[in-house]
Write a structure and sequence with these properties.
α4 links the parallel β7 and β8. The chain has three domains: 95 residues, Periplasmic binding protein-like II (D-Maltodextrin-Binding Protein, domain 2), CATH 3.40.190; 88 residues, Periplasmic binding protein-like II (D-Maltodextrin-Binding Protein, domain 2, 3-Layer(aba) Sandwich), CATH 3.40.190; 67 residues, Alpha-Beta Plaits, CATH 3.30.70.120. It has eight helices and 15 strands. With 287 residues, it is α/β, with parallel strands linked by helices. Helix content is 29%, strand content 32%. The strands form three sheets. It has a six-stranded mixed sheet with strand order 2-3-1-4-11-5. A five-stranded mixed sheet has the order 8-7-9-6-10. It has a four-stranded antiparallel sheet with strand order 13-14-12-15. It binds adenosine-5'-triphosphate (ATP), 1-O-pyrophosphono-5-O-phosphono-alpha-D-ribofuranose and magnesium ion. 1-O-pyrophosphono-5-O-phosphono-alpha-D-ribofuranose (PRP) binds next to β9 and α5. Belongs to the ATP phosphoribosyltransferase family. Long subfamily. It is found in: Cytoplasm. It holds the Pfam family HisG_C. It is an enzyme of class 2 (transferase).
Length: 287
C-alpha cells in the first residue's frame, strides 16, 4: 500500500474550526487532536491535517504546500481566484456586504462615489465598485471594521454579515450584498494525480454526509384511495416504498425527502389523510 497522504488545511481557531472537524468526523475520519498540535494525522484515512490561519490558506494552496482546505468562499473570492472551488459544505453561511450609518440617506451605490470605505476585503470591494463605475478610497483594517464610521475613520464599511446584529449595535445598515458565502472545499491547482485519488475518496464521503444532513427518512400511514395523491407529493430516491397495514384499506409509505420539501408538503399530506407521520434523521446517504 502507498504511504501517500492527502494534506488538508483547516482553520486553527475561529468560526470554521469546529464545524470543519465535525464534518470530517461525520465522514468517519478520526483525527488525534492534541489542541496545541499544528499538525495531526488521521488514524483511519490517508490524511494529514494542518491547522492554519484562514487568511494564510490560499497561499498554501497556491504553492501546493497543502492539497485541499476547508475555507469560506469569501476568502477565495478575496484572494484565491486561482484556487479550485469544490463542494459547498453547508455551514458558516454569511454574506459580504456594504453598510453605511443608519442616519445616512442612501439612494444607491453612486452615493459612495468619492467616499472612504473601511474593510478587510479590499479586492472584493474594488472589483464590485469598478464594475459599478464607482471610485472610493479604501481603508484596510483587519478587524472591528464596524466601528470605523463612528470614530470618523470611514463613511462606509464592507464586512461579513450574518445575523446583522454587529451592524445593528454599531448603528449601521446593510445597503449592498456583494456576495454570499459558505464553507467550501478548496483545492490546490498543483495537487498530484496520486493525491487526487485520495481526494476523490474524501469527496465521496463528504457528499454522503452532506446528502444525509439535508435529507430525512419519513414514514406515514395513508388511506389506499389517497396513495396516488400522496406519492405525487413525495419524490423519493427512486420511488417510495408502500407496504400494506394489517388494517384493511391502509398502507404504510416510506421515503427519503429533502427537509425543506417536507415542510412545504406537510399540510397537503395531512389533507390527504396521512397519519402517524414519523421523520427520522439519516446518518449517511450514498447516491
Ligand atoms: N458572523 C459570521 N457568521 C457566519 N460565518 C462567518 C461569520 N464571520 C465569519 N464567517 C465565515 O467564517 C470564516 C472564518 O471567520 P473567522 O472570523 O473565524 O476567521 P478570520 O478572522 O477571518 O480568519 P483567521 O483564521 O485568518 O483569523 C470567514 O471567512 C467567513 O467565511
Ligand atoms: O452579522 P453578525 O451575526 O453580527 O456577524 C458579523 C460579524 O461576525 C464577524 O466577526 P467575528 O465575530 O468573527 O469577529 P472577528 O472580527 O474577530 O473575526 C464579522 O467580521 C462581523 O463583525
Ligand atoms: Mg471573523
Amino acid at each position: 500500500m502507498s504511504n501517500e497522504k492527502l494534506r488538508i488545511a483547516i482553520q486553527k481557531s475561529g468560526r470554521l474550526n469546529e464545524d470543519s472537524l465535525q464534518i470530517l468526523k461525520d465522514a468517519g475520519i478520526s483525527i488525534d487532536n492534541g489542541k496545541e498540535q499544528l499538525k495531526a494525522s488521521a488514524r483511519n484515512f490517508p490524511l494529514e491535517v494542518l491547522y492554519l490561519r484562514n487568511g494564510d490558506i490560499p497561499q498554501y494552496l497556491r504553492d501546493g504546500v497543502v492539497d485541499v482546505a476547508i475555507l469560506g468562499e469569501n476568502v477565495l473570492v478575496e484572494k484565491g481566484d486561482d484556487i479550485i472551488k469544490g463542494e459547498k459544505l453547508g455551514f458558516s453561511k454569511c454574506r459580504v456586504s456594504l453598510a453605511v450609518p443608519k442616519s445616512m440617506k442612501y439612494n444607491g451605490i453612486m452615493d459612495l462615489d468619492g467616499k472612504k470605505i473601511a474593510t478587510s476585503y479590499p479586492n472584493t470591494v474594488n472589483a464590485f465598485l469598478t464594475e459599478k463605475g464607482i471610485s472610493a478610497e479604501l481603508h484596510i483594517i483587519n478587524g472591528s471594521v464596524e466601528i470605523a464610521p463612528s470614530i470618523g475613520l470611514a463613511d462606509a464599511i464592507c464586512d461579513i454579515v450574518s445575523s446583522g446584529s454587529t451592524l445593528f449595535k454599531n448603528n449601521l445598515k446593510e445597503v449592498e450584498v456583494m456576495l454570499k458565502s459558505e464553507a467550501v472545499l478548496a483545492i490546490s491547482p498543483l495537487i498530484s494525480s496520486e493525491r487526487k485519488l485520495i481526494l476523490e475518496k474524501l469527496q465521496f464521503r463528504l457528499n454522503s454526509v452532506l446528502n444525509a444532513r439535508t435529507s430525512k427518512y419519513i414514514l406515514m400511514n395513508v388511506p389506499n384511495d389517497k396513495l396516488n395523491n400522496v406519492i405525487k407529493l413525495l419524490p423519493g430516491m427512486r420511488s417510495p416504498t408502500v407496504l400494506p397495514l394489517v388494517e384493511e384499506g391502509w398502507s404504510s409509505l416510506h421515503t427519503v425527502i429533502n427537509e425543506e420539501r417536507f415542510w412545504e408538503v406537510i399540510d397537503e399530506l395531512k389533507q390527504n389523510g396521512a397519519e402517524g407521520i414519523l421523520v427520522a434523521p439519516i446518518e449517511k446517504m450514498v447516491m
